[in-house]
Amino acid sequence: MAAPEEQELSQAQTEKLLQFQDLTGLESMDQCRRTLEQHNWNIEAAVQDRLNEQEGVPSVFNPPPSRPLQVNTADHRVYSYIVSRPQPRGLIGWSYYLIMLPFRFTYYTLLDIFRFALRFIRPDPRGRVTDPVGDVVSFIHSFEEKYGRSHPVFYQGTYSQALNDAKRELRYLLVYLHGEDHQDTDEFCRSTLCTEEVLTFLNTRMLFWACSTSKPEGYRVSQALRENTYPFLAMIMLKDRKMTVVGRLEGLIQPEDLINQLTFVMDANQTHLMSERLEREERSQTQVLRQQQDEAYQASLRADQEKDRKKREVEEQRMQEEEQVRQSVLAEERRRRTLEEEKERKSECLPPEPPADDPDSVKIVFKLPNDTRVERRFLFGQSLTVIYDFLFSLKETPEKFEIVTNFPRRVLPCLPTEEQPNPPTLKEAGLSRSEVVFVQDLTDD
Question: Which pLDDT tens digit goes with each residue over 53-69?
């Protein structure tokens, strides 16, 4: 049984499909399409779900059974820098350390037991991300309330969005996980993160994303990056076409040391970023070249189409002119035949010529436009129309003409008019027994 055919995608759906493939790196178009269809073509939801799946966290939009989140940290060349807490010095330092050690041990042990037992009673609410953007914005507001507004520019979006922007812009992404309960957090934020030199360095060199691990979004990223202590910073960049952690900084680090370590990580991975930039430029140039070739092809195609159109117009014009000439020839031929038929009919209808000794006869000499002379006798009682019909029946006579006497000069009214429907007879016209008249051609008129 044949599988049902898939519906064709609209232009908007095709654009979302290509954008989703570019953001997620999936090679299978079918898998990309299935994922988008599961999220009703909501590309942000689909990308979030895909990144959650890659990182092993429950999906924001369609959560699977709980499992640990994994981030692409398999590269063994990840640079790690851990700042340990200073050891106590002198008698007073060691005495204070030894006195507080049981209390600290008891506190953290009881806290861990309490948290472990609490999981059986109530699942950790941080395990389900419902409003990742809200978690980030909430952290930024609480950070500004506590430490002021002089801080690096926080990326106001989800972790996934920050990854996508860093990938698209080919920039470094520095991730900061804020441990609220850790004893070094306040000092790091006040003495390191919010200093002018660190602030300027971060704002000009990279994207900076931060969130508290007490928020679901921060907890999700914490499970992915697997930090050992706080403060925790992770440098992420596009490497081998994947967003990869290339540096980890843990512990209370001083401003100058932080800048030096970040600069070291960036210098060590600059070749990868340059390679990605060159590759993108090459793809962009290839795309521009292809677009220029397509435009040139379209222009050539339009020119050919215009040339063909003009050629068709010329051909159609020529055919129309030939058809007009042919129709004119046919019309002239029909007119000529009609004229010949009319001349023959007029000739057949003419009364016989009277004899020369008939006392009622009139001899008329006609001078034609071609200088020929025609002579014929008519009767005084016959209408001038007979004279006109006689001349009309002659082949030498033009199609339209009039009969004019010489002395006095006058036009004989041979054809009926509204004032004189019956033309006069030869006698009424005042013709003598012998007359010479002229036939004038009116065809041009």
Answer: 655 544 544 444 333 33
